[in-house]
Amino acid sequence: MMKPQLTTSVEIKDTLREAPIPSLVRIPIEPLHKPVVKKKQLVSCGQVIAENPAKGPHGTGYVHATIDGMVEDILPQAIVIGPAPAPKEGEAPPVFERPEPVADLDTIKGEELCRLLLELGIDTGKFRPSRTLVINGLNPEPGVIVSELLLKDAKPTLERGLELLERAIRPATVYLVMAESKKTSLYSCTVVPSTDRYPHTIDPLVVRKATGSERPDDVDVISISDLYRVGRVGKTGLPLVEAIVTVGDGVYRVPTGMPVRDLLDATDTPHGKGWQVALDGPMRGDPLCDLSVGVPENCTAITVVQEGQFPPVGPNPCINCGECVLACPAGIQPGMLSRFVEFDLVEETRSRHIAACLDCGMCAFVCPANRPMLQYLRLAKQLLAAKDAQLAECRLSD
Prior knowledge:
Blueprint: E1 17-18, E2 25-28, E3 34-35, E4 42-43, E5 48-51, E6 63-64, E7 69-74, E8 78-82, H1 110-119, E9 132-136, H2 146-153, H3 155-169, E10 173-179, E11 190-194, H4 203-211, E12 219-223, H5 224-236, E13 242-247, E14 250-255, H6 260-266, E15 275-279, E16 286-288, E17 301-306, H7 323-327, H8 334-342, H9 362-366, H10 373-397
Parallel strand pairs: 1-14, 9-10, 9-12, 10-11, 13-17
Antiparallel strand pairs: 2-8, 3-5, 4-7, 5-6, 7-8, 13-14, 15-16, 15-17
GO molecular function: 4 iron, 4 sulfur cluster binding; electron transfer activity; metal ion binding
Domain 4Fe-4S ferredoxin-type: 309-339, 348-377
Keywords: Iron, Iron-sulfur, Metal-binding
């Protein structure tokens, strides 16, 4: 059995590819989104289909249609858009009017600019006024080559995004953390060379590399994909309707909500019986049982592996070897924490610093007992967050 290499930097020879436009999309929405369309309504690509009702400049972006078509269903997690019905005999085909490019992006700044970006589909929760902006230019996981390909192929778009962010949040310093072997730079950025070994490519460790502090105040950190999305909106003046996704050895511009199965078919990637599929990379990705789900806009990869390539995980007993403790970049004890969760003692994980977990998956990677370590730790954080939210609601109602 082979496990993936932990080096994330590769030699990029390919260019950004275009995925075909699907006939149906399932566009993911968040619980806070308010749909503004109805079933059987015709919509145009770029039209707002769900809003964030909050009025502030920082938060989750609006959701837009990514194809021309008709709303087939509105679900709690997605809005489904399919092809428009064929016109009846003697009727003219439907006319889809695309939105006009926004002209205000170059004339506004600060919170007003953040609000406009939010309405164009950008999640602006990361973009708060700060002294320092750290751009994570490292590939996020082994096999996920989005960052380095965009730095090679989309530099003007990235610099357009940087120009908009500098006007939106006015950072005093901008750091670009890059693999030591790469020579790329961006306008106005201070380049910080870094190792490309995972997990040193994840945001908290990248911030420490750039600033020298583990938890600095007044620092924003964004990925190259985040920067590209801002730049793409800035260059076109149009809403965000796409994701940049690694599939196999290629990187594709994909309409948001394209069913995963359609994307795998379009890229000739094997799937089905004998194959396992996950959203995002091999270390932190979420396994998929239903390939009809739509690709989210912040997805960086679709990972496909053949069954048997990795040892299966299961509720195997911990053998107290300590490998997970040695591998943990946060310096916590994943084995102990996983056993608290396993035996329904989730509250005990608070005092053992579960909040410091970086969600990197290294504990599962090195575990010789093949325990589902990352899943246990994620479950603990979800249960604690739900409990805290319930307590906060009770206090408000008193």
